[in-house]
Structures are given as C-alpha cells and as structure tokens.
Automatic annotation (TrEMBL):
Pfam families: AAA_lid_14 (PF25601), HTH_8 (PF02954), Sigma54_activat (PF00158)
Domain Sigma-54 factor interaction: start-end pairs: 333-558
GO molecular function: ATP binding; DNA-binding transcription factor activity; sequence-specific DNA binding
Keywords: ATP-binding, Nucleotide-binding, Transcription, Transcription regulation
Domain of life: Bacteria
Family annotation (Gene3D superfamilies): 1.10.8.60, 3.30.450.40, Homeodomain-like (1.10.10.60), P-loop containing nucleotide triphosphate hydrolases (3.40.50.300), PAS domain (3.30.450.20)
Domain HTH araC/xylS-type intervals: 592-632
InterPro entries: AAA+_ATPase (IPR003593), AAA_lid_NorR (IPR058031), GAF-like_dom_sf (IPR029016), Homeodomain-like_sf (IPR009057), HTH_AraC (IPR018060), HTH_Fis (IPR002197), P-loop_NTPase (IPR027417), PAS (IPR000014)
Protein name (Swiss-Prot/TrEMBL): Transcriptional regulator of acetoin/glycerol metabolism
Record-linked SMART domains: AAA
Length: 632
C-alpha cells in the first residue's frame, strides 16, 4: 500500500486505506508515504489529531482577523503586488494564499467564490492552518520544515482535504527565520508542480526584497549577482548599507554569493566585499541609482540600487552623515567592540520596524542598560520606558502588575483599581526582564496581548488598545526551556524578532576601555590600573560580569588614598583578591608566577624580607600578605 500511483482517484483511495489502517489501531506503515509526508503524518498523530476530523477548529472573529492583519501590515504590503500577479497567473484555476509565521491566513486570492462549493468553509482570513491544528497541509508543514512543500491530494493528513493539492514556499526574514508562507491550492493533482514551485519561489523572493527594503528604510539597499540576468530573481544577493558604506544586513543569497557567513559580512565596509575605490566612492555611485558593474576577488558583480534612504535623497548627505544624536547612547555602550556595535544597530532598526527585541546574556552583562539605550535611541524616546522583572514579582501578582485590575476585581484590590504596566508603557517601550521566569499560564495571556495589541484588565471592563515596543531579556536558554515545555514555543517566536546576545565580560575585547568608562562613571576619571591588576582582571572569569567589575572597582577606589591615581593589587581586600585569584586556571598561573617571583627574590636576598620587599617595590606588610595568600 503506497502512494506512488498518479491518478487522483487511485491516489486518494490508497491514502484512505492508510488512514483506515491507522484508524483501526495499526501503525503508520513504513515507506507508504514520501519521507517528508511520513514525518509530517507522524507529527500530526503526535498532536492527537484524528484524520477523519470533519469539525473545523473555531475561526477567529472578524475583529480578531482585523487585528491579525494590522500586526502583519509589513508582510501584507510587501506581498500585495505578488498576490495580485499570482492570482491573475495561477489563481484562475485555484487559490493563492498568504499565511503568517504561524500559518494564519492573511489573504486569499483567485477562485474564492468556489470556496463554499469546495467544502473549504474554514479557509478564510484569520483561520489557522498550522500542522498542530489541521495535520499535514502545505501551509503548516512548510512552516515546520522551513522549506518549500508540495502536498498532493491524499498526502493531506485530514481525509476531507484529499481532493486538494497545495504547494507552499516560505517567505524568509532578512535576519534569518521565516516570516510567512505563500501557497497555491488546486483541486486534483498538481499539474506541472515544478513550474508552479518556480513561480511561487520567484514571487516569495520579490516579497522578501520588498520586506528587506521596508525593514531598512533608512539604508541604501542594493541587489547584486555575478550574472545580470539574475538580478530580480530569487538568487539575487541583497545588502543594506549605511551611508558610510557599512553592511548592516544581508540576505542568504548575499552570504552565498560572497562566500561568507552573515556574522562575517555584517559590519564590513562595502568596498571590501564589492570592490571599488573605497566605500565612500562606491556608496556615492550606488546613490546615483544607475546599474553598476564592480570587480571583486570573486569576479565581476552587477549591482542595482533598490532603495535610496530618505536622508540621501533629500540631499542631507554630503559624504559623511553625522550620527543621529539619539543613537549616541547606544554607540557609547558598544565602546570599541565592533560586533556589539553592529548588533546594537540591528536591534535599533528592528525595533524601529516593529520587531520585538530579545536580549540574551548572563547576569550583569548590561541587558537592562541596553534596553534603556534602545528606547532612548528610538522614536519613542519621549514616551515611557517601563521595566518589569518577571522573576522578582511574586507569581500571584505578576498578572495584576502587568495587566492591571478594576476596582473590586478581587478581595483586597486597591480602591480605584490599578493601571497595569502594559498600559503604563503605552506609546513607549515595555521591557520584560527575565521573561524565561514567567509562569506558563501568564505566557498564554501575554502572547494574546502581543498578537492582538489589546489589554483586558482583571475584573473586566473595556479592552484597551496598546501600542508598545517590546524588549525582552533573559539569562536562560529559552530554546532549551521550549524543548522542556517550560516556555511556550509560540511566545518564543513572537518575542524573538531580533535577538541580541550580549557578550560575557570575559569575552569582551574592550575590557580596558570599559574599565575607563566605569571609572569615569564612578567619579574617578583620571584613575588607571597598574599592570598587575590589569593582568589579573584580564584573566579573571567575571561570573557577575559588568555588575561585578563595577563593584570591584568601587571597592578598590574606596581603598585608595586621595592622591593615588593608580589602582593595584594592594587596593583589593584580601577576600576580594582571594576570590579573583582563586577562580580561574589562568589566574592560578598568575598566582604561581607571582609566588615564583617572590621566592626567587627572597632567595636572592638570602631570606631578608625587607630587602626582598624593596626589590619587588612593595611594602613588607604586602609581601607577608601576598606570601600568605599565595601559599594558602
Ligand atoms: N556598557 C556599560 N557601561 C557601563 N556600565 C554598565 C554597562 N552595562 C552595564 N553596566 C552596569 O552594570 C550593571 C548591570 O547592568 P544591567 O542591570 O543592565 O545587567 P543585566 O544583564 O540586566 O543584569 P541581570 O541579569 O541581573 O538583570 C549596572 O550597574 C549597569 O549600570
């Protein structure tokens, strides 16, 4: 019993026999279905779905559908021209469907009048076609597999979908990940499936190009390929460049054409990648808009400018654009770390484009500081920045804290009720710190708020519209939490628009500059560290990151005499020095070297402690203390 035969009736009949076998308690026979269909059926079984389900899951209300469209405006705007085109080309004999990243239908074009007659009452804007709800189907399965999928008639898990064939392709986000899905559905087996797939792929790539430009409205967006005919095709590379010529974003094809992973591309100067006499000159030529041919180490590339930023077209740019003042606070945070600077810039742009930002990093790496700086650098800077620490508020109170409540909502509720943090943040930025510690029940409520952008306070009353930029942070590995069912997968994808990992202090290359800034912040601008302390700091693990460094500097400054401008090991208390020297392998090698130096010096001075201390340039007391520490 396999699905290898190619007449519609045989095909549907064979798949029905597999379903009947499944229904009578048999296992899914190995090899009866194509490998990807087999895997999808097994997932559908795992979701507890019956393949005979006739009952469609309840669809969203018209108001819900309206909100869904509102929250996917960017994708819809980018897709509309392609939907019109495909409906004319392919929709004469079928349906063209656009879905969001959760397989909810955003648009249906083509033979929509035939939908009721086809028995597809539940195919409408707002309905969800995820695999978890409807089993194997092109929309849902494409999102699970993150690749183009063809589901022919009986390959659908639900028997009632057997008359249809569907081809879907993912629409990818410029930063990676899938943003939506484009689908062609027909009655009967799919004729020329490869042709249809090529047409859908082309349309998806055009939507992706438009999204790319929409996400980087302030940047110069350039398409390139080594063959001119491939410009405007799914294979064209796309780069978003700052007016200074720095690469800020690249699509997958750009990475493939330039033979570099995305991380290596971002932050590079365009002339290093696309040749030319310097990035400024290249930018100037690209701004003129005419097609260009550039000579690179990988051969000749043809370039076409897709978008000129408003600042340049308004004539504001004369070679070097001054950095917008609001971005200063962000740049200051990145210091001399180019990777961090690039990541912060991407987060700023993502936030400006309506994407939520997820900040990852160990405790004390500066997640809250970055969240505040992102808010300051955004157009919402003069609106509230509201931080909620999901780990610090008792579980029973988080709900009312976040959503607020009406007077009398529960025993002991405040007179007059309470405005929730979400409402307080309206117009501004909501920072959900330690989101990984949010209880599962609340995660479901938060997800609903993020999707619908409406809040219903505890105790009822009217729903309130909420317009907030969302920044979340956690020190936990959310993917592991998702696998362990401690964090909702749908919420994870919802908050993970742009994720930014803040480096641990031990990974940062700008420790010296950061120390300088911290000393400055602590009111000791001219103070510096001596070589020993610098070496110790450089080898220490810093489990508490910047917070711990700040505390150590604070403590050392407190030990300093008023006229001392150099901090050394002597300025650390014994317990602090113990802690800093005990924790790492490298530190223990410093400790060994120091011990050896002291021993050698004592030996040379025939055990005379005062002479050894003098030769080492430290006091007798310090030498005793060090010996005690180093031996102990
Ligand atoms: N780039 C920076 N320059 C100077 N100080 C900083 C910087 N980043 C963080 N700090 C300081 O480090 C401390 C910790 O920062 P922050 O609270 O933002 O870290 P966090 O990652 O949110 O920590 P937690 O995980 O505990 O919530 C704060 O005192 C902050 O002022």
């Amino acid at each position: 019993m396999t699905l290898s035969t190619r007449t519609t009736e045989d095909f549907i009949g064979a798949s029905r026999r597999i379903r009947q076998a499944l229904w009578s308690g048999e296992r899914l026979p190995e090899g009866a279905l194509r490998a990807e269909i087999d895997a999808s059926w097994r997932r559908s079984l795992g979701h507890g779905l019956s393949c005979w389900d006739e009952q469609a899951p309840a669809s969203d209300s018209a108001a819900d559908a309206e909100r869904l469209l509102g929250s996917n405006r960017l994708l819809l705007d980018a897709a509309t021209p392609q939907l019109d085109y495909l409906a004319r080309q392919l929709g004469e004999t079928g349906l063209i469907i656009l879905g969001d990243s959760e397989a909810r239908v955003l648009a249906i074009e083509g033979q929509t009048a035939l939908l009721p007659g086809l028995g597809l009452h539940d195919l409408q804007v707002g309905s969800c076609w995820s695999e978890a709800l409807r089993g194997t189907n092109a929309l849902g399965t494409t999102l699970v597999e993150a690749r183009p999928t063809l589901i022919d008639c009986g390959e659908h898990y639900l028997d009632r979908l057997s008359p249809f064939s569907c081809t879907s392709v993912p629409i990818r986000c410029p930063q990676g990940g899938v943003l939506g899905v484009l689908d062609l559905t027909r009655v009967g087996l799919m004729p020329q499936p490869q042709d249809n797939l090529a047409t859908l792929l082309l349309a998806a790539s055009q939507i992706e190009s438009r999204l790319f430009a929409a996400l980087y409205p302030e940047q110069l967006v350039v398409a390139f390929h080594c063959r001119r005919q491939y410009l405007d095709s799914p294979w064209q590379g796309l780069l978003a460049l700052s007016l200074e010529g720095e690469v800020l974003a690249a699509n997958d094809q750009a990475c493939a054409l330039l033979e570099l992973p995305r991380e290596a591309l971002l932050g590079r100067r365009c002339a290093e990648l696309l040749g030319g006499q310097g990035s400024q000159t290249l930018v100037r030529r690209l701004l003129q808009g005419a097609p260009l041919s550039v000579q690179t180490a990988r051969g000749e590339f043809c370039c076409r400018t897709l978008q000129v930023p408003a600042a340049a077209s308004a004539g504001l740019w004369q070679g070097m654009r001054p950095t917008p003042a609001r971005a200063d606070c962000l740049e200051a945070l990145a210091g001399d770390d180019p990777r961090l600077a690039r990541a912060l810039r991407m987060a700023r742009q993502g936030l400006a484009g309506g994407l939520p930002v997820l900040l990852l990093g160990e405790t004390g790496t500066g997640k809250e500081v970055v969240a505040q700086a992102l808010h300051q650098a955004s157009a919402r800077a003069d609106k509230p920045f509201v931080a909620v620490n999901c780990a610090a508020i008792p579980e029973g109170l988080i709900e009312s804290e976040l959503f607020g409540y009406r007077e009398g909502a529960f025993t002991g509720s405040r007179k007059g009720g309470m405005v929730g943090r979400l409402q307080q943040a309206n117009g501004g930025t909501l920072f959900l710190d330690e989101i990984g510690d949010m209880p599962l029940t609340l995660q479901a409520r938060l997800l609903r708020v993020l999707q619908e952008r409406k809040v219903l306070p505890l105790g009822g009353g009217a729903e309130q519209d909420i317009d907030v930029a969302i920044i979340c942070a956690t020190h936990r590995d959310l993917r592991v939490q998702v696998q362990e069912k401690g964090f909702r997968e749908d919420l994870y994808y919802r908050i993970n628009g742009i994720s930014l990992r803040l480096p641990a202090l031990r990974e940062r290359e700008d420790l010296t500059a950061l120390i300088e800034r911290l000393l400055d912040k602590l009111g000791a601008p001219g103070v510096r560290l001596d070589a020993d302390l610098q070496e110790l700091f450089g080898h220490y693990d810093w489990p508490g990151n910047i917070r711990q460094l700040e505390m150590v500097l604070r403590a050392a400054l407190a030990m300093r005499e008023a006229d001392e401008s150099v901090l050394g090991l002597d300025h650390l208390s014994d317990s602090l020095l113990d802690e800093l020297t005990a924790s790492t392998r490298q530190a223990s090698s410093i400790r060994e070297n120091e011990l050896k130096l002291i021993r050698d010096t004592l030996e040379r001075q025939q055990g005379n402690v005062s002479a050894a201390a003098e030769a080492l340039g430290i006091s007798r007391a310090t030498l005793y203390r060090k010996l005690k520490q180093l031996r102990g």
